[in-house]
Design goal:
Blueprint (H helix, E strand, L loop, with lengths): L2 E6 L6 H13 L4 E6 L5 H4 L4 E6 L1 H11 L6 E5 L14 H9 L4 E5 L2 E7 L2 E8 L2 E6 L6 E7 L2 E8 L1 E5 L7 H4 L11 E7 L9 E4 L4 E6 L6 E5 L3 E5 L4 E6 L4 E5 L5 H10 L1
């Protein structure tokens, strides 16, 4: 590896100093690196970056995955947050783990990502990318919204609910799990669709193949609101009759892993205790 990027969560007081420590450690081994806040745009640096080290929680990792996706840069996460589903190591073990990565004693885990396009009046209006989920939900005041689901051109169901979640396998351990959805292996090629507080509507999760073409049409009264969010971060207000097209992204997020693939189940059970 010739150039390694290090992104740190600025709200974590230990993250910045640890980023500087890792940078010095890499320099001592003849490896160039750069550091920056996980909250800023680093597109100009990623085109010639071989690995992206992320110091933060799952939120920072999600954000970094979206940044790294167009450039195909794999992510090595060091957990500075509370959960760390996506991170590969804890702060006290980074040197041991990073030594193995530099020696090639690791493998790449590829994870499906979503792309969503909001169409307004028949034209593309806004695009989103998500590693966890796309959520269409009510705003304020509190009121149910109607969401019409089409899959591969065919009508499937009308949901009258607080919202609808389209989750990836990665997102199956996030909001989708809180809604009672199934946990999918991280490298599986599927979506999960789950309604949020449905009223007299289909109340079971649906698992769809990764090549499915999903269209959601939103109907909301003039005095009500609806929103769309990607990974709980980017959002816009939706208008009545907006349509959202959700598909698998043509590229996948890549994470550097050291443990065998069954690590996921052990980590899941440990986090749930």
């Amino acid at each position: 590896m010739d150039n390694i990027g290090i992104l740190y969560q600025p709200q974590s007081s230990p993250a910045g100093p640890l980023a500087d420590e890792i940078k010095r450690w890499l320099a001592a081994r003849g490896i160039a690196s750069w550091t920056d806040s996980s909250r800023v745009s680093v597109d100009g640096r990623l085109s010639d970056t071989d690995l992206l080290i992320v110091l933060g929680g799952d939120g920072s990792t999600l954000n970094s995955a979206r940044k790294a996706l167009p450039f195909g840069v794999p992510i090595f996460g060091i957990n500075m947050g509370n959960i760390g589903f996506l991170s590969e190591t804890e702060p006290d073990k980074w040197e041991e783990k990073l030594t193995r990565v530099l020696a090639g004693d690791c493998w790449l885990e590829k994870r499906l990502m979503l792309r969503a396009i909001v169409e307004r009046d028949g034209r593309p209006y806004k695009k989103f990318i998500a590693l966890n989920e796309i959520v269409v939900s009510r705003g304020v005041p509190i009121s149910l919204i109607d969401i019409y689901l089409h899959v591969d051109g065919g009508f499937i169901a009308k949901y009258r609910a607080d919202g609808l979640v389209v989750a990836t396998p990665t997102g199956s351990t996030a909001y989708a799990m809180a809604l009672g959805g199934p946990v999918l292996p991280p490298m599986s090629d599927n979506f999960i669709l789950l309604p949020v507080a449905p009223h007299l509507s289909l109340d079971r999760p649906l698992v769809l193949p990764g090549n499915a073409n999903i269209k959601l049409r939103v109907e909301v009264a003039a005095d009500r609101e609806a929103v769309i969010t990607a990974d709980g971060h980017n959002y816009i207000m939706l208008q009545n009759m907006d349509e959202i097209i959700v598909r698998k992204h043509s590229k996948q997020a890549a994470f550097v892993r050291l443990d065998p693939p069954e690590y996921f189940y052990r980590r899941l059970l440990r986090r749930l205790k």
